[in-house]
């Protein structure tokens, strides 16, 4: 819907952006969107249900598995769902002829999708650990994920925005993912690919450790 509805619908009223058509401009970022949301939904509503309503965590922790094992299992499942969703989106983009780089670039793109899934699954587990009820997730999606969705450079370049917007955007992990995706999918020159990759890896490690720590603190009183 976003790729073709906005890419063709809105794109029909726009001139080329950064030397490419609008649908080609948004395609790399659109791959990251299902990766972010698949992991986030699974590790918020899904994990919270297993922890509080179904008491699945209690049953798992009655076995030799630790809280760390449990949380990492949740995160890996969220990342796997992201990989599935992102792969489907990448396949659609390939069929639509929007992949301008070599087909071999599919491999680093899928690795990136899995990394983003792991990152947002970890972030979602932090939200789950802090959540008193399902209503709390409305704040998580509205105040954290939605700004990333709109201000990470998916739908428009950030070059014309004030400096403070660019600074905030660069603090968002999805911005770095979109830039890397654009580099691999569309052969767009991006000189900060190494630093952006390191930022994503660092955020993933920090969020995963926090997720484990906070879930452990919540479960083990």
Written description of the protein model:
The mean pLDDT is 91. This protein has one domain. Helix 1 runs antiparallel to helix 2 (22-53). It has helices at residues 2-10, 22-53, 56-61, 67-95, 106-130, 136-150, 163-170, 173-186, 193-219. By secondary structure, the chain is mainly alpha-helical. The protein has nine helices and no strands. 75% of the residues lie in helices and 0% in strands.
Low-confidence stretches: none
Rg: 18 Å
- CA-based shape: elongated
How far apart are the first and last residues' alpha carbons, in Å? 45 Å
Which SSEs are present, and which pair or pack?
Blueprint: H1 2-10, H2 22-53, H3 56-61, H4 67-95, H5 106-130, H6 136-150, H7 163-170, H8 173-186, H9 193-219
Helix pairs in contact: 1-2, 2-4, 2-5, 2-8, 4-5, 4-9, 5-8, 5-9, 8-9
Please give a quick description of this structure.
The protein has helices spanning 2-10, 22-53, 56-61, 67-95, 106-130, 136-150, 163-170, 173-186, 193-219. The chain is mainly α.
Features:
single chain; mainly alpha; 221 residues
